[in-house]
Amino acid sequence: MNDRSNIWIELNMVQSWYTSKTNRFFQKDDLLEPFDYERLKTDLKDSLYGQHIASEVVLKAVSGFMTDKHPSKPLVLSFHGGTGVGKNHVSNIIARSIYKKGENSEHVHVFISEHHFPHKGQLETYKTQLKQWIHGNVSSFPRSMFIFDEMDKMNSGLIDVIKPFLDYYPKLDGVSYRKAIFTFLSNAGGNVINQVVLDSWMDGEEREQLQMNSRDMETNIFKDVFNAKSSGFWHSSLIGDHLIDHFIPFLPLEYRHVRQCVLAQMAALNITANDGLADRVARDMPYFPPEEKIFSVKGCKSVRQKLLLHI
Ligand SMILES: Nc1ncnc2c1ncn2[C@@H]1O[C@H](COP(=O)(O)OP(=O)(O)OP(=O)(O)O)[C@@H](O)[C@H]1O
To answer: Among 36, 200, 257, 272, which residue is least crowded by beta carbons within 10 Å?
Structure first.
């Protein structure tokens, strides 16, 4: 959770302000970044580790969408994978390629299922608020970005609220949603992805050879998400109606990637790069399978905290 998510809590206070059409100050204060393919490519290459599939699909999808003057629908990306493998991180990279203030832009809206919609009994209120929030923000700023974290824990009633915004309609209640971006993050499909990567590793294949359709990964993620009875996703028409443009797998990270995360955190903390320290911190993380210890159980999550413990 971050500060942006608190905005939602103040919804009732600010809603009238949003619809009062006096919010032009956003547009002065928080301009869009001119889209630059090379900058996004470099950002993905330099700051995203071990995710060659996500990197390639995101680059193509975002650049295609951002350079399309007349998109027929909003861009809808669904990120899948275990914990700490970079799903939020990539959402932030996308935001940096669009807004001058990146992920801190007022036009980036983050919803975390269990944080923002915790009480089943309030579902009807949440539905109304979510609808108003998306409508209000896109009507005042069409190039808005909505990030839904923990999508697998999202109530299907809320998913149904989002659905019309993702569709091909030219306008809904007088507003076009075609320039907006929706990203859905979830751990659903994570086990399928991990198994594919493990099998490929066991067979001695290079990680970078894995592609979206390798070993039926995409189909199996799709099946897993669709059939997961615990997740709101499964009976929602999002998948059935093909409103998600790209299902993007995030692979489990290996020791070498965790080590890169440690070095990145050293740079962020202004600590001189130290290979020995990077090794010690990366070794301190848990890995699976229990015997081979190839993939990080928590991805790069809590690397910063571990590093701070070591210095
Ligand atoms: N593939 C990666 N490349 C570079 N940094 C990464 C990567 N994965 C994770 N990180 C680092 O670890 C932090 C935590 O990762 P992130 O929040 O993106 O994980 P997540 O996949 O969204 O996990 P969760 O499912 O638990 O929300 C990020 O802020 C980033 O610093």
So the answer is: 272
Task: For residues 44-57, give the mean pLDDT.
Answer: 98
CA of 157 to the centre of ligand 1 (A): 28
Strand partners, 148: 111, 184
The string of pLDDT tens digits covering residues 160-188 is 899 999 998 888 889 999 999 999 999 98
Alpha carbon distance 230, 163 (integer Å): 19
Arch. (CATH architecture) of 3-186: 3-Layer(aba) Sandwich (3.40)
86 in a labelled binding site: yes
Domain map of the chain by residue range? Answer: 3-186, 255-310
Tell me the pTM.
Answer: 0.90
Contact 253, 285 (CB under 8 A): no
| Ligand 1, pocket residues at CB < 6 Å | 47-51, 81, 83-89, 185, 187, 253, 261, 299-301
How do strand 181-186 and strand 246-249 relate by DSSP bridges?
unpaired
Spatial separation of the C-alpha atoms in residues 132 and 145, rounded to whole Å: 15
CA distance 185 to 190: 11
Distance CA 224, CA 51 (A): 21
Q: Who contacts 296 (Cβ-Cβ below 8 Å, separation ≥6)?
A: 84, 252, 253, 254, 255, 257, 258, 285, 286, 287
